[in-house]
Amino acid sequence: MPNEPELSVVVPLFNEEDNVALLQREIAAALAGRDHELILVDDCSTDRTRERIERGPGVRVLEFEKNAGQSGAMHAGMNAARGRFVGLLDGDLQNDPADLTRLLAALEEQGVDLMCGWRAHRQDSWSKKLTSRVANLVRSRFTGDGVHDTGCTLKVMRRECVGALLPFKGMHRFIPALIKGAGFKVAEMPVHHRARVHGVSKYGFGNRAFRATADMFGVRWLLSRRLDYRVKGDTQMD
Questions:
Q1: Tens digit of pLDDT for each residue in 42-63?
Q2: CA 192/CA 23 separation, integer angstroms
Q3: Are 86 and 157 in contact (CB under 8 A)?
Q4: Which helix (H) or strand (E) holds 178?
Q5: What is the Cα Rg of the chain in Å?
Q6: Which three-class secondary structure string do you get for 40-92?
Q7: What CATH number does residue 65 fall under?
Q8: Per-residue pLDDT reduced to its tens digit, 110-119
Q9: Range of the domain at 120
């Protein structure tokens, strides 16, 4: 693939006007000296997010015609990625961009395909941490993804993993399960987490619990129906 960087960083954005410019500077500092591209996916923000984006070399901006949700923004960004590796992080500054290099190093050292971040010391309200912990526990046991924190956006994967991700609403919650279900190796490591300073969370208890539960049953069914085959040979008659 022409102009293939080492790492493509995908960031979904929705109403992050006070965060996006600072986030870009943090990503640039964290990846200084590395061949990378930044893909910002604006999910039809209603504030000044698009105006605040600092455009320049290595920065690609995808703009949606209508709001498609976090899964849609992630899926579009990952499929547009040209890097050998693809990194994901939120646009609200709660993820630390410096962890991208740590995740990539751990992925290569351990020889896995997807390295997931795990917010071991999460900086959120107790109610949000409690509901998330319960949801993560149920989801992990039900889908068999083997990770503590499926809700943590911060991840690094080999680009080949992107093909395992199906474009459905809620897909972002099941990235480890879908990639592991496709036969790739998945691991996790603790990452930093920071308190939100600007903007508001886009999720509440209702849209986390009920939708995620319905999605979980769908993903479980999908994984149970996964085809598993290997081509022994491929011959052609002249």
A1: 999 999 999 999 999 999 999 9
A2: 15
A3: yes
A4: helix 175-181
A5: 18
A6: EEECCCCCCHHHHCCCCCCEEEEECCCCCHHHHHHHHHHHHCCCCEEEECCCC
A7: 3.90.550.10
A8: 999 999 999 8
A9: 7-224
The token pair that represents 151 in the structure block: 């809700």
In this structure, is residue 155 part of a structural domain? Answer: yes
**135 occurs within a structural domain:** yes
In a domain, 238, yes or no: no
Question: Which is it for strands 155-158 and 59-63: parallel, antiparallel or unpaired?
Answer: unpaired
pLDDT tens digits along 64-107:
999 999 999 999 999 999 999 999 999 999 999 999 999 999 99
| Nearest by Cα to 137 from 127, 124, 146, 126 | 146
Q: What is the pTM of this model?
A: 0.84
Instruction: Count up the domains in the chain and report the number.
Output: 1
Q: Compute the distance between CA of residue 16 and CA of residue 214 in angstroms, rounded to an integer.
A: 28
